[in-house]
Each structure stands twice: as structure tokens, then as C-alpha cells.
Batch of 2 targets.
Target 1
Amino acid sequence: MERYGIFSVICFAYAVAIFWMLFRKRVTLQSSLMYLLLMVGLGSAFVALHYVPDLVPMLGFVLPANLFFSASIATLAFLHLSGLVAMSRLEERSTTLVQEVALLQEQIDRINEQRSPNRRDDLGGL
Amino acid sequence: MAPRRLLVIVPCLNEEESLPGLLDQLETAREVLRPKALLDVLVVDDGSVDRTSEIARSRGVRVARLCRNLGIGGAVQTGLRLAARDNYDWAMQIDGDGQHPPAELAKLIDAAEGPDRPDLVIGSRFLEREGFQSTRLRRVGISWLSFLLRVSVGIRVADPTSGFRLFGKRALLLFDEVYPYDYPEPESLAIARAASLKVLEVPVQMQQRQGGQSSIFGFKAGYYMVKVTIAVLLTVGRNAHPWRKQR
């Protein structure tokens, strides 16, 4: 159990770092909640290590560390995937917003041009 | 018949060298085409760092300036959105680098008014093999994309990467909703086919770019081929899915 103590401390340190970033508004709670739960979960897992030796062979692992490692990688992969989904949605929205801003600005330019007494009637059609 | 309203979309990224010449040619084309189409020009400045927008504004054309670079697909879709909202009959894409001579516009318009009434007309440099023909390596890539579109969506297009295009009303409504942002030309053909749009290809002459350089070279050329191939196959897969057809 002591062997996993350092790993647990690192996980809790990550959790504290996420809390700090939440406090400073560097990340939002909805985007970091899963990550936070993962780090707290992994950090607390060493408490359950007494029960792990029975679980490890049932899942086809030789060492508890292998189970720990595999579970961590799978969870991180899931978190990364959910991050990709969120990023793709944001990219889509950001692109639409950039287009809409450009189209609105174009409309404003045209209105200002029509109001302006010095508008260039000769080229207005083109 | 009353002349149709046509919006010529010129997507530009740092094209201050070639843009004045292109706008001059469009002014000439505007007079020539007046009986058939009332031509407006929209320059979509895709986040240029040079004087592209200022030059376009000084010439009195419509300018939509994107506050960040979206790529050619995002720039063209901006123009298509404007055309759909302002109720234009047609929109036409012409690259800002001078590859597409405005003197060839009439060929696409004639095709759009022809008996087939296509929704999307593509200007092809390979049907009559006149004018600028691109490099040999690029032609190999274009042949692959042409083959891919033929076997996957059953569309026969010799020049699927051509950006010299005329969009009819139905195409405007479709691409207002969905248009690929990254290397859009071949994928947009698959989307058009999936939406049962009529696509027609007509021979045109193209020129070498008048300024700037292509964004597709070296490693990017390989990325382009892989990305576009997967994108076309995904479009086919999405539309072949039974769930999609039931909606």
C-alpha cells in the first residue's frame, strides 16, 4: 500500500492544481469536473488497494500496478475524447460567429456608405 | 427574360498584388454580362495581413472581412451565406489569385441557363486541355479524387478540385447550411450529390496564379489527399446510413 503513496500524492496535487485553476477562473467547472473526479478517484484508490489483489487476477492482470495503469490510461483517453468533442463544437461555433460578424460588418459598411454624402455612386453597383 | 442577380465571391488571403487586376477584369466582365446577369462582387478577406481589404474597399466592391483566418471553405461559405440571404439567383466563386479569368464567366452562366438547369456548374481545365493545366503530380492527385468521386457517389467530374464554380439557388441553400471548411471542393461535390443536386462541368481556360503561392505543397499535399479522401468517404457513409434516410 505504501508503494502507491507517492502516486496518490501526485494525483491529489493535480486535483489541488485544478481547484486552484477553477478558483482563478482559468478553467470552467463543466470542462474540468471529470478530470477533477479522476484525480481525486485515483488519489483515493490506494485506500482500496487491500481489496485489489482479489480483483486483479479476475480482470486478467498479474500486478495491481498494471490494473491501475490500464484504468488510468483508459480514463485519460475518455477524457481526451470528450475534450475533442467539446473543442470541435467550439470550433464550429467560433467559425459561424466569425462569418456572422463579417456579414454584419459588411451590412453596416453598406448602410454607412449609403448615408455618406460622398458615396461613390459610379462604382456602387460593382 | 430579366437578367439574373449574380454575386461573384472572391476569397482572398494576402492578395494585394493580384486583386487590382482581377477587379479590373471583373468590371469589364460586368459590362459584357449585363444582358444576362447583374453582377455584384464580394471580396471575402480571410484574415489578410496586407492591404487586401483596403484595396477592395477603394474599388467600391462589397467586402466581408473575417477577423481570423478560416480557410478557403469558411471564406467561400461566408459569401454563399450572403448570397442566400440577399436572395441572389446565382453565386460564383473566383479565386483571388487570378487563376480564374473573369472572361470565362459567361461559359458558366450559359451552362447554368442551359436545358439541364444544373444547380452547380464547375469550370474544368481538363475537358478541353487548354490553358494552365497544373503540375503532373497534382494531376495524378486530381485523377485519384475524380476516380474516388466516380466510384463512391457516381459523379463524373474531370476537375473536382476546381474552385471556379457557379452555385444555383438550391446549391446556395444547401451550402449555406453545410460547407466543408478545409479543402472543400471535392467534398462539396459529394455533399451536392448526396442532396441530389444537378452538377454540370464545362470546359474553361485557367491561368497560373498572378501572385502569392499555393497553400498545398510538400507535406501538406499528402495531408490534403488523405484528408479529402476520408472526408468524401465519410460523406458517402453518412448519407448511406439508414437512420439518415428515415429522417
Note: Helices of chain A lie at 5-23, 29-44, 52-58, 64-115.
Target 2
Amino acid sequence: MAGIWIVAETREQALELLGTGSLLAPDMGATLTAVVSKGSASPEECISRGADEVLMLAELAPGEPFGAHLPVIEKEARAASPDVILFSATARGKETAARLAARRGAGLCSACTAISFDKASNAVVMERIAYGGAATQKLASSARPVLITVPPRSFEPAGALDGRQGKTRELPAPPPSAVKIVERKPKEKVAKDITEARVIVCAGRGFDKKEDLALARQLADALGGELGATRPLTEEVHWLPEDLCIGLSGIQVKPELYVGLGVSGQVQHMTGVRGAKIVCAVNRDENAPIFALSDFGIVGNLYEVVPKIIEELKK
Amino acid sequence: MPTVVACFKWVVDEAYIRRSAGGALDFSSVDYKIGEYDRNAIEEAVRLRDAGGGGSVIGVTLGPPESAKGVKDALSRGMDQAIFISDASFKDLEPSQTAAILAEIIRARIPQFDLVTCGEGSSDLYAQQVGPRLAELLSIPCVCFVQKLALEGGKLRAERRVEDGVEVVEAPLPALVTVLPDINTPRIPGVKDTLMAGKKPATIVKREELSGSFEGSLKTAAMTASSMERTGEKLAADAAGIARFVDSLRKSGVIQ
């Protein structure tokens, strides 16, 4: 019988990946196996949400990274030879999936955004974003296994069902990894989650200095929204926390309204706002790419324009 | 004195990709560039060499013959020499194929190295697979998404960024890292660098010199242009423009 595996580090990942796997399982006639870390979803919960089998990863010794599980997962995957193996496209998930794919000589669809099974060609069909968001790449695999990473919150989490049955097995502890964690620095300040914000005002490189972001905040307040940022602001000058970085390598947002202030409109960034209902912009460069990707925008100096917009909003 | 292998890719500059009427990708006016993240991989390799008081940086890339331009570009960024595996068929390769070719050439031509650096992903496909796959094929430890790196006493110490914070890790050398954009600021080559690049050794390896079959396992069924274009109405920064801007916001129903 065909098999679909999900490998999850957290409960949220487990539920989403079970939901993703269940999109394929009926068409493929496949069982679902959840390979999960201790402390993520419990075996009972995995089973109630669609898993037929749960493989519990052993607790890691202090200093062992998540990737240490790889030899154990590889051995199990070799024995059971699942058709599809799903991971979350997180830092640890992406690395572990790619390493497992190399060990198994398998294909891997990174950051998959749509998935289906084509019975006629016996192929798993997947979509992903390429060229910084300028293109959608459609991949098909009739080879097995095929590995897939899924960006968090791309698919619906699996719902709970009554009366499901499944088996649970504990996996052995992995051998020591060559890579050791010597220190963990948890995120100091977690910025507000803006993925569900209704209005986002996004600051770009058009701002001259950090203090000037107050202007973007004022507009966000006037619109009842949150502040977001482009990658240069979070990664180069570090004016805003990385959690606010919108784009292909940051978060994807789908607000009712997105306002880009001093945002040039590079495709990697704009890909993150393609789900927005209304996109508008203020930029002094009339040739900035953001105008073509906006519903409307003002060509002008944001330092002069934004206070006037705030004023107009008060009317 | 470390020997560092820096992997890079000569890619289409996505800013020039257009969408043709039928929704197909139009590459007719594209330019090419060294992948954005690969510039950080090259810079970090060069920085570690210089911090280590010598050693060398060997750039490795593969692609169709046109990618030779990228080899010269990469050499102008401070590396000592480059190996370019060139074949007309090396277009649109899957990450698994790229990693397999890189692994064979590194094994064959660079028997002793301390570190391999890769960008966190290529600028075109951004599958983020080649680094970790290559580490597995070379059977060396792998640390991805590194924002800070040092080599010391036969091991590396790296800060790796993960969703819940930063992991400071150590691994024995040789090892492979993939680097994040904020690990360094890549240099912008000057005229002198470009002139010097022409004098640095660049080895061209042909497909026939490799033994692997490099079969892919996924099939790209379609590559279509994303439609992100909107009406794009441009307003002036005068009173009328601002009034119309706010009016449009109100009419769209997104604000009260």
C-alpha cells in the first residue's frame, strides 16, 4: 500500500502537514504516517487527525540539533519506502528534507504551494514560486519517493475525527551528530504577528533614518493597521524586527489594504503581498516597479505626502 | 590557512523577466548576474581566507557555456581561482543534479578543503537544496542559514538562524555552510578587480570529463508568469492627488 509520511517538529506543523497529506491520501490510496518530535502533537491527536501510524522521534540529548534525527528517519524511510515525505519549510525542515532527499536519491519540491495527484500519469503534481515570484513552476514526479517542503500556514490543518484507530511506535535515539549546539539564543522580542492584519503599512528604503519610521506608524494608526517592512530594513539596517519582513524570504500577508511607503517593489517583496485586496504606494520615483503592481499610488516624496494623507483621512 | 570552496550560480536577473500576452515568461530582455545570495557565499569565503592569514578560495560553478561571464564576475570578487563545469545541457537543472555535479568535481579536483560555502538559495529557483544535498554527497557536516561564522582549531563555530531564535553550533571541518544575506556585505568589484580577474586561473571542465549520469527525478511540467500586475493608477502629490488617493481607499471599502 502506498504511504505518505509527514515529519514534524511542532504540533502546528504536524496538523498542517497531516492536512496536506490528506489532500493526496485518498487519490493515492495511501496511509498516513506521522513522524513527530516528542512535545509536538501527541500520538492520539495525530491519529484523530488522520494518521494511521505514528512514529515518535526520541528525545534528543542536550546540544543535539533536530538534524540528528536524520539517520533514524532515513533508516525507517528505507524500510517502509513511503511514496511522499512532507516536511515544513522551516530552517530545520528545509535542511533535513534536502539531506534526506540526497541520501535517498530523491526529488524534492521546495516551498510547495499547491499539491495534487494525477492518477492517469501516477504523478504527484506540485506548484511552487520561482524567479523571485515572477513565475510559478509546476513540477511532476512519477518517481518515488518524492519529498516536499510546505511553507508554514499554506494548507489547512487537519481536523479532528472521532473513532479513528492507529498504531504508535517509539523510534530509537539517534547516534550523536557531528554538529553540536553550544548555545541557544531565543528570540529576544517577538514582533507582533502581522500575517492576519487587515491593513499593513510597509516601510521601505525610501526612509532616510530609523526615527522617520514614526511617520509610517502614524499612517498605520490612522488606517487602523500594522507596520511591515521590506527585507533591507530588517536585514541590512536592522531598523525593524525580522518578523515584519514581508516577501518570499519573509512572511506572506493578505491584508485588505497594503500601503508601500518608499518601497521600490522588487518582485521578491511583492510576492509576499499578492494576496492583498488593495495595494497602493507612495514613491518619489515614478518608474519604481511598485506602481505597476499597485492599484493606485502617489508619485511624490513620502515625507511630504504621508502627513497630507493622514490629514485627509481625518476629514 | 583555510582552503574554502565557494559555490555560485550565474542566473537570470528576475527584475527583467516580463510576462508575455499569453502568460508565458518572456526572457528576451533579461540580463544575468551572480545569484544575490551567492555573493554573500563568495564574500564569506574570501573573508575567512583573509582572517585565516592566507589559504585560498576556489570558486565552483556549472552551467551552459554562456555562464563563463559569471566566472569572470566571481573572480573579480576576491577569490583566487575558479572551476567551471560547462555544458550546453546544464540549463534548468534540478537541485539534485547541480549538487551531484558539484560533488563530483569537488571530490575530483579539490582533494583537500576546509569549508564549502553556498548561498542560502539560488536567486532563480530558490529551492535551497544544493547546499545541504552537497554536504550529504560529500559526507561532511552541514550548517544551514548561517548569519555569523568563524573557523578555529579544525572546527567551525556558526550562528544559525532558526524560527525560534539562533542556535550557536560547532562542527568539525571540513564542513559546508549556507549563508544568509546579512552575514556580510558583498564587495562591489572595481575596475582593478575586474582587470585582475582576467589573470586569475579559471579551469573549464567539460561534461565528458565527468563520470556521473546526473539524472533528475522531477519534471518541470510548466513555468508560467505570475500575474501580479494591477491597474497602476499614478496620482500626483498635490491636493487633488491626495484627495483622490484617500477617496479611492474609502470607495474600495478597505477603510471606514
Note: DSSP finds six helices and 15 strands in chain B.
